[in-house]
Amino acid sequence: MTVLSGTGLTRLYGDPCGDCESLTGDDAGRNRCPACGTIVACADVSLDIERGEVLGVVGESGSGKSSLAELLALERGEGHSRGSVRFDGYEGNLLESDYDTRTRLRNDDLALVHQHIRDGLTLSFSGGGNVAEKPLAAGERSFEAVRERVRSLFEQLEVPVDRMDDPAETYSGGMQRRVQLARALVTDPAVVVLDEPTTGLDVSVQARVLDTFRRVQRERGVAAVVVSHDLGVVRLLADRTLVMRHGRVVERGLTDRILEDPHHAYTQQLINSTL
Amino acid sequence: MDPVKPTRTGVRTVSEPDHGENHASDGTTGEATDESGGTPVEAEDVDGALAALDGAGLAGYNYAYLDEHTKREVRRAVLKAIAIPGHQVPFASRPMPLARGWGTGGIQTTLSLLGPEDTLKVIDQGSDESVNAANIRRLAERTADVETTTDTTAADVIQTRHRIPEEVLDRDQVLVLQVPVTDPLRKVDPSDAANRRRHAHANYGKMWVHLYENVVEYGEIQVASRYPVTVAGRYLMDPSPIPRWDVPKLNDADNLFLFAAGREARIYAVPPHTDVEPLAFDDRPFQVERFDAPCEACGATDTYRTAVETDEGDRLVVCNDTSFCLKRREDAGLAKDHHLDRDGVDWGPGTPDADDTDQEPATNGGDRT
Fold it and tell me: Which residues form the ABC transporter domain (chain A) (predicted)?
């Protein structure tokens, strides 16, 4: 059953001339409109996410992955957005929904793990406080219940529980990542969007973060969209994968198929260039 | 030739044809008053202008110091604030003869409300006698021609800084509270723009995290003053720096509470009989301050007490509300609702109540959950 679906997702930065989309893309080999200079971050991307599945989005830097993640997570970015996002249980196109609907959805059912930690966490708050914010904002009024939930998530995600009351700014990068994951998972959402979940982590910490996420994701049956430039991350987590270039989806399919039998020239290059 | 030209000293002189008369004796010339009600000053320099005003008294000042348009604008803001309980309403906030942050919002609101029939009381942290309270009282006395009092029960309008009186206010009284910081959310986010959006959508998660962390640190909510409250189930409001002791008095009161901040140019209100609920967890309830000893002056156990130092250097713990403490010294059993012909008036913690007289008053926090 489809939980989250996007149709014709497009985001443009600049002052579009009208021909931007036909003048850019994979065939044209650019994402900047030669006529007016508008950046076509992503154009006409459609995708569906089933309950409990993990969808990977790979592509080089600047290929529109983060813009797509922001659109799916209903982040209010700058630029012109088009297309429609539908979510199981909510009416209509959520890109056009009002603040209340969006806030309710993002509090209860859909969570975004930001690429930049500063966008996702209030670093002056404690790690536990950052995670507690979501159930508290959703109306939970029992202190002990909130605390217990935070504690159990910290244990599951292997964040040291005795550090949960320290300010998040004193945490290491890997801990901050995991606190962000805890914050995303605390309200038991149906879908989590992870934007570059392992940026800035060394390989062993990366592996542990991804491992714990995969375990928790399977235990809870959360669907996820994992955006990464790193094929290894997608190989480890994703059931299906989209490959993006110049703001367009150039190839899509089961992750195994894409990795073993890439069709598009860019995908072949991407796989061959893995160190 | 320039008819009006700033002189070196910055005083604008009026160069009318000199008719040889000197108005310096009273500083005003009835017929020279211009349209806006201002009075041209005939002087060569600042010293001359000041000398001309010497002994002028209140001539040239409007009733209650502020001009009528300003008072009307303040009253409009007050009406809007009453219509949207707990919402911060902007107002023009004129310069007053004291620095912003010293009660200018309260003074403007008080002066806009006063009429010659009214009686005014001014409290500064429970005391009627502080310099600021005495000066504000004197300003109102001189410009608005009102009676002043230190007796809470005799006042029509009470301007106060950081306390709500111990004696119960009734429906004919208005309490004007001076407010230094209008937005409770500023504690958790310094951005007023972001906070206004949070108020618009009743998105108060960050404030709850603040309380959560408070409990983590102290085991209970320890917010000394400016305790965040929800007004009428909608807006989060800063009740000004009153102690927690006074917060329950805001709930379902008979009187009108006005909150005014001159520096921030905002007015907000809690109308009579409005629900005001302090933020708290189900398992960590709101609590008022606890006191170990009764007042050393009047023996009260049901009032908010603070430590004062006497001239001899002794440290005394006494009632913070001095006017009620004086009354209690005459009559130790005086109830907080002694002046009302009703029983069981609930006013803050420990109010004598016919139903639960056996409760120990000063330790019963959060009696309205």
Answer: 23-271
